[in-house]
Design goal:
Layout lengths: L5 H13 L7 E5 L4 H15 L4 E8 L6 H14 L3 E6 L8 H19 L4 E3 L4 H13 L4 H4 L5 E4 L2 E4 L7 H10 L16 H9 L7 H31 E4 L3 E4 L1 H4 L3 H15 L7 H10 L2 E3 L2 E4 L2 E4 L8 E2 L5 E2 L3 E5 L5 E4 L11 H5 L2 E4 L5 E3 L8 E4 L8
Parallel strand pairs: 1-2, 1-4, 2-3, 4-6
Antiparallel strand pairs: 5-6, 7-8, 8-11, 9-10, 10-11, 12-15, 13-14, 14-18, 15-16, 16-17
Protein name: tRNA(Ile)-lysidine synthase
EC number: 6.3.4.19
Pfam family, one: ATP_bind_3
């Protein structure tokens, strides 16, 4: 009997909405071997092959259990049997608080880096409708605002790749039927049901593993509505920032306070500016942003706002590190070229910044020798070049 084609066509329609891809698309997909990522790999394999392209599966080994390496190798071998090239990424996270969230972030970072290195600019992830509902519930319990309650987006940039979630509107029950019809047996991760983790407890409370019940539907629809609100707010924020802020390539900004305003859009714009300058992975607390706006200046998220200028807070800069090409300092500055055995670190208070405000110059990178003498910076010098390339925040 011919397998049902419902999910195939739904996947193709989702990909069409996420495109265009051009001829011979080269895709990557994060594959754990679980039901949803396994279905994604099969769907993406067929979709890419039909267009003369290819799929690379990326299998993350978190290294949290002794057997995890063998399991990742088994998943890669299983994918090879299905005609999918696979690469195992060893993460080896340390145990400790916030393990699930840290593992999620480390996995996403490793997947994006590997996809970019492989020349596969589209990175597919297997989150589905129940995952979206769970994300909204999780963030609501943490007091998230409109941006957080919008949940996951179908497409977003991450470094040099574009993350795509073509199954985001699909119920997990449909994915399970797709696998069963093809005789594919997925791996089941027992930690997904471990009540020690908040998301597992939420999943149990929703009590809808198939993702077809009214609770999941309502949460998914709410995420969609919040997503539209987020898109409108982002457009308003972008327009406001164009009119009130000039961002300098050195990683600081000039701010027209009057043009910024004091409304909700101003708060969101200031929050985005703080993240852009400080490289924060998450927006600062809304109450803290409102207080900063009310004061008309101050410190927040590793950023100082004084008068017309917004720059990195010097005392929050990272310690100096060897300035080897490729090194990322302070989560924001990438060393392109550096002579000898120099160190990259903050210029520090009292550094002559020329036309720059003193606190802005103090938070910019300079090159020093082992004795602490400044060899170059904050700007470029002989054999010395750095670029403002934060690894998190809106400019990542």
């Amino acid at each position: 009997m011919k397998p049902p084609q419902g999910l195939d066509s739904e996947f193709a329609a989702a990909m069409a909405g996420l495109g265009p891809f051009g001829p011979a698309p080269r895709l990557a997909a994060g594959v754990s071997g679980g039901p949803h990522s396994l279905a994604l790999a099969v769907l993406a394999r067929d979709w890419a092959a039909a267009r003369g392209g290819r799929l690379l599966a990326l299998v993350a080994d978190h290294g949290l259990r002794p057997e995890s390496g063998g399991e990742a190798a088994w998943v890669a071998a299983r994918l090879a049997q299905l005609g999918v090239d696979a690469q195992v990424l060893a993460l080896y996270l340390a145990a400790g608080p916030g393990l699930h969230e840290r593992a999620r972030a480390a996995r996403l970072s490793a997947l994006a880096a590997a996809a970019e290195a492989a020349g596969t600019p589209w990175l597919l992830l297997g989150q589905h409708r129940a995952d979206q509902a769970e994300t909204l519930a999780f963030r609501a319990l943490r007091g998230s605002g409109v941006a957080g309650l919008a949940g996951m987006v179908p497409a977003r940039p991450a470094g040099g790749v574009l993350i795509l979630r073509p199954l985001l509107g699909v119920a997990p029950a449909a994915i399970e039927r797709f696998l069963a019809a093809r005789g594919l047996v997925p791996v089941r991760d027992p930690s997904n049901d471990d009540p020690r983790f908040a998301r597992a407890r939420l999943r149990r409370a929703l009590d809808d593993p198939g993702g077809t019940g009214p609770g999941v539907a309502a949460l998914a629809e709410a995420a969609s509505a919040f997503g539209m609100r987020r898109a409108r707010l982002r457009a308003a924020v972008a327009a406001r920032l164009v009119g009130c802020a000039t961002f300098r390539p050195e990683g600081w900004a000039v701010l027209d306070v009057a043009a910024l305003g004091r409304d909700a859009v101003a708060e969101a714009a200031l929050s985005s500016l703080v993240r852009a300058v400080g490289g924060g992975a998450h927006p600062p607390a809304r109450a803290a942003v409102a207080a900063l706006l009310g004061r008309g200046g101050g410190s927040l998220g590793g950023v100082l706002w004084r008068g017309r200028f917004v720059g990195r807070e010097p005392g929050r800069c990272a310690a100096a590190v060897p300035a080897a090409p490729g090194v990322l300092w302070d989560g924001r500055w990438r060393v392109v070229a550096a002579p000898g055995d120099g160190w990259i670190g903050a210029a520090g208070p009292g550094f002559p910044g020329g036309n720059l405000p003193g606190f802005v110059a103090a938070g910019l990178p300079v090159l020093r020798d082992a004795a602490g003498r400044v060899l170059a910076g904050p700007g470029p010098g002989p054999g010395w070049k750095v670029e403002f390339r934060p690894d998190s925040g809106p400019l990542a």
